Amino acid sequence: MGPPTTRSQTKKGEKWVEATQQTNLLEDEGLSETSESKFGATDLAVIPLPQVLHELDDTAAVLERDAKRLRDSTVDAISDVRVEAQSTSVRLAQEVRESNSSLLEGLNASFKAVDDRMRMVPTVATLAPDGSAPRIPFFSGTTDGLQLSAWLRRFDDIARTRVVPLNSEQKANLLIAYLEEVAREKIEELSEEDRRYDSPASLCKIMEHTVVYSVNFFGAPAESHSESHRSVTVEHCRRMQTHKRCEFGMLSSSDGIYKTPNSLIYDWPSAPFGCCVEHTLSVTNCYLVPTTVHGRHGSSVPESSIGDLRHCAYREGSCVLHDGSVLIWSPIQEESCQFALVAKMHGHLLGNVWLSDSKEFALSLGRRLVRS
Question: Which of 37, 115, 261, 268 has its Cα between 20 and 30 A from that of 287?
Answer without folding.
Answer: 268
